[in-house]
Amino acid sequence: VFYCKLLEEANRGSFPAEMVNKIFSNISSINAFHSKFLLPELEKRMQEWETTPRIGDILQKLAPFLKMYGEYVKGFDNAVELVKNMTERVPQFKSVTEEIQVI
């Protein structure tokens, strides 16, 4: 929600879209991985839980893709600092983030 709303506002010219992409790093890739691969595998396994009560094999199979979390975590501190700076300097950024938090 934050990514989409902030990108929408950035596309209106309130602030650079590059800032939004720096804040959220590779979150789109992580979301795609979750929705297309990890979640379906886990949901399928939950339906088979009586006969196959484990998830380690799923995580092992998908382990190479889990490396994308490292990139996200590596940039987290910088992203938090960027959010702080943008909130202080750009009223539209602050307005959008506050509006979302109320929802």
From TrEMBL:
This is DH domain-containing protein. Pfam families: RhoGEF. GO terms for cellular component: cytoplasm. GO terms for molecular function: guanyl-nucleotide exchange factor activity. PROSITE patterns: DH_2. Gene3D superfamilies: Dbl homology (DH) domain. Residues 1-103 form the DH domain. InterPro entries: DBL_dom_sf, DH_dom, FYVE_RhoGEF_PH. It comes from the Eukaryota. GO terms for biological process: cytoskeleton organization; filopodium assembly.
